[in-house]
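Sat 14:20. Reprocessing the chain from the morning session after the first attempt stalled halfway. Input below, unchanged.
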Amino acid sequence: MDFTFTEEQQAATEAAQAVFSGVAPDAVPSPALVPGAVAEDIDRRLWAGLAAGDLLSLTLAPEHGGAGLDLIALCLVLRESAKVLARVPLLETCAVAMALQRYGDQGVAAELLPRVGRGELVLTVGANGRTGHDPAELAVTARLDNAGDGAVDGAGNGAGRSAAWVLDGVQSGVPWAQAADLIAVPAHTPEGKAVLALVRRDHDGLTIAEQVSTNGELFGEVRLDAVRIEPRELIDADGAWDWLNALLTTGTCALALGLGETVLAMTSQYTGKREQFGFPVATFQSVAVQAADRYIDLRAMEVTLWQAAWRIATGESGALPPAGDIAVAKIWASDGVRRVVQTAQHLHGGFGADTDYPLHRFHAWAKQIELSLGPAAAHEEALGDLLAAHPLG
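Finished this time. Tokens:
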């Protein structure tokens, strides 16, 4: 298997490195020192930089002002973003835009996607459902109202409301919901079909209650009470929500990899300078072995990430559906990033918990990433179901 990235993908990585080079992981207060969220908004300056660097339009088609690259390129950029704990909904915005481009109404896509690429619109998605344990689409109902209200005007013409989809339910833990212009809401129809609704943050009937995530960022509980949207604002194509969920899960694995790589580098630098008995602790066998184990974790996280991203990007067939590769990647990402930060804390000693040192921030973000879109155990169960349905050999 050839893991060489294309020139375009390498260029995307270099552009991302340039944009993220000036970002400090501790640009906001420590989550350990504030009772609520660390900030009320995303990093708007960084968001503008991503737009100026054409990174928000990376996966958009040329007709929408984009470069037409694939999920692999996006994951390369996400990997770089996690190295500095970038406080922007890069994954959510790009993934929703990709789903709209692939499955949505083309008129809506033509209207919104160029604005996304220019950084004028921020998108997010409610992928956690009501509790984070059940499928997200089951938390919201979507029913088609064709009847209108039956009213007529003075000339006897029908003045009732036009056909609309009506949404009711709750999506919890929506990343940076208060900063988003549009929220993608998975829902289910009375027939049990999964659909995806695009709802304005200020839409009548939509309210957002503040929630604070594990990493200290401001998330939201999005409640929909008889929210009416136009039919063209709802994506009902088969597989649309599953595909978007696959993008989000794989992108989360890229975030875990980038974060883990930075944490291991921090640990290497610290143990190389910290001395005991006149020698750097990195020269002690027990320290070296633990660091080597975490390096192996990162390499496993990397290879499973690219396998999953490649299956999605190319549509290549395999022994299992792409969901199998995605599950394997998320298992490694969740378990691997947890082990990396735990070992880093252990090898840093008490210094790792110092709020003047950024390691504790990476630990909080790692926990958020580990549990996002399901912990390892949930994906192990999903992988078991896939193996039972597709026996190998």
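Residues 244 and 358 are 32 Å apart (CA to CA).
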